[in-house]
Automatic annotation (TrEMBL):
The lineage of its organism: Eukaryota, Metazoa, Chordata, Craniata, Vertebrata. Residues 59-210 form the BP28 C-terminal domain. It comes from Echeneis naucrates. Residues 311-338 form a coiled coil. It comes from the Eukaryota. This is HEAT repeat-containing protein 1.
Length: 344
């Protein structure tokens, strides 16, 4: 069996690298159309062949075949919305392969050829089915990871939709489900992760002072408000806060690079420490600690405002919150290099 799979792998590789695009691409496209109906499991193999083929193509071949490839990807990226009732994990896996393929192609494009493609995909995501939003923001997150600072050049148009979606996918702001199919809540949680992660990368790779006052204003409240978004329940909420939300807000602060905006951000987080739900108060403290650790000595100017809130939380009825306050104070003392006792 081993030798057969080796021979098959070698055959796939030969197909991908030896056949010219004019022969291979139409065939792959045909295969996709029939496999998507009754052989979904085999699609990952098909995408593997295409990925290797794309990696092997030179710039001229790519630009010659780009419109053909674009229409293929627009079809293949619709896999999730056509399969919206299917098994979420399987769907995500196949979609992941399609996205990897597309990213392989994008890495070979110039900024000039990528721009129209990106906006075509952006328009595509806004029509037809909400499932497309999941696919598009997952793709954006993958592109941001690979393109780094280059992606930031295209991200301006995403700020408004990011801001709107963060407000829309919020347990306490709306009762209506974003996705009407099975696993709707799970899909909303996934979409939130992709948005927070993509934003995190935009803030991380921003060297051009991308975060203008206007963009900062559009994102600041929707981001901080996510600390109250308990969508998905206890464990899912905690994981989202620690792995996605807190890192994103910390990096947001760095990208703001502005005293006035830091003050607003810090104060909005402080207000959340008075929330009626103990887990929200706890999460707000995690966010505060991240802010201090990212701003370092710049956090000094925000201390006078912060201390009264921390003092209040030292008396919190929830033991976890009380312990966390002690941690925050200790962490702030480490960062600022001086004891805070005198402030209380």
């Amino acid at each position: 069996m081993g030798s057969l799979s080796v021979r098959l792998a070698s055959l796939r590789s030969t197909l991908a690298t030896k056949l010219p695009p004019r022969v291979l691409l139409p065939t792959l496209s045909k295969c996709y159309s029939s496999m998507v109906l009754d052989q979904k499991k085999q699609l990952t193999v098909l995408m593997g062949v295409l990925k290797e083929h794309l990696a092997h193509m030179d710039k001229d071949q790519l630009s010659f075949h780009q419109s053909e490839l674009t229409s293929f990807f627009l079809t293949a990226l619709d896999f999730r919305s056509r399969d919206s009732r299917g098994d979420l994990e399987k769907t995500s896996e196949i979609e992941g392969h399609v996205i990897n393929c597309l990213v392989t192609m994008v890495m070979k494009l110039s900024e000039v050829t990528f721009r129209p493609l990106f906006f075509k995909l952006f328009d595509w995501s806004k029509s037809d089915s909400t499932e497309r939003l999941l696919t598009f923001y997952r793709l954006s997150d993958a592109l941001a990871e690979r393109l780094k600072g280059l992606f930031v050049l295209f991200a301006g148009n995403l700020i408004k939709p990011f801001s709107e979606l963060l407000q829309k996918i919020h347990s306490s702001k709306t009762n209506e489900q974003m996705f009407d199919s099975d696993g709707g809540e799970q899909k909303s949680v996934m979409l939130l992760h992709y948005i927070l992660d993509c934003l995190h990368k935009i803030f991380l790779y921003d060297t051009q002072h991308f975060m203008s006052k206007e963009r900062a204003d559009a994102l600041l409240s929707p981001l901080v408000d996510q600390v109250e978004n308990t969508l998905g329940g206890g464990q899912v909420y905690r994981q989202r806060v620690t792995q996605h939300l807190v890192p994103c807000v910390g990096q947001f602060a760095v990208a703001l690079a502005d005293n006035t905006l830091w003050k607003i951000l810090n104060y909005q987080i402080l207000l959340k420490t008075r929330h009626s739900d103990a887990q929200v108060r706890f999460s707000s403290l995690l966010m505060l600690m991240e802010l201090a650790s990212k701003l370092k000595e710049n956090y000094m100017v925000l201390l006078p405002e912060t201390i009264p809130f921390l003092a209040e939380l030292m008396e919190d009825e929830c033991e976890e919150v009380e312990q966390q306050v002690q941690k925050v104070i200790q962490e702030m003392e480490n960062i600022l290099g001086e004891p805070l006792q005198s402030f209380f």
